Please model this.
Amino acid sequence: MGEIASVFPPPAPTWVPTTDGRQCPVHRVYCVGRNYAEHAIEMGATGREPPFFFLKPADAVVVVPAGTLGHIDYPSLTVNLHHEVELVVMIGRGGRDIPVEQAAQHIWGYAIGLDMTRRDLQNDMKKQGRPWDIGKAYEQSAPIGPVHPVAQTGELRRGAITLSVNDEPRQRGDVADLIWNVNETIAALSRAWTLQPGDLIYTGTPAGVGAVAPGDVMTARIAGLGELRVAVAPRAL
Model:
């Protein structure tokens, strides 16, 4: 087969660094909605509803190396940008219809992530019964720290998950409080999609989500994974 005559250069792949000095290519970014009970309540839901998912494009990922301050732009069209701290799982072995009891075997590692949300746009779409990708799946909406190999961390079933803004506590929970735990989430996802190595799963956020403004600095922490610090840049003119 000869050289492909491309109309334009293909986009560069998205890579997330690991704590062992390597890089992981990102395939897809899955997010779990309303997966902590108190957050579900603050979003107007109750009970243990069936898990539901939405996706972000791989190029929504903003990599923040360990020990650095990352930056995201305040996005267009919104006046209500919200933070959501999440445990992120990277899939290392793909599969379809994965049993819950085998799901942990498909985990490569864990990271801290932020699911940034244009809440006003999301809420408008909800009221109209329309898809709310515009509130979730935009550029720079998925900051993430380095991935910690599960071989080093062990399986994360519990641990404090917190977020502060300008050192003011906002969100606090525990990974043990996930409505659908990581293994159940992997199993459910794999019934709808064929999971692939490099898939990222943002597993849900605890209560306390709220707005950030240009100049704010978010500090997210998960026990055993260190911290992720991200500043919000001024709105582009």
User: Anything to note?
Assistant: The chain has a mean pLDDT of 95. The first helix runs from residue 37 to 42. Helices lie at 37-42, 119-128, 133-136, 150-153, 182-192. Residues 104 and 195 are 13 Å apart (CA to CA).
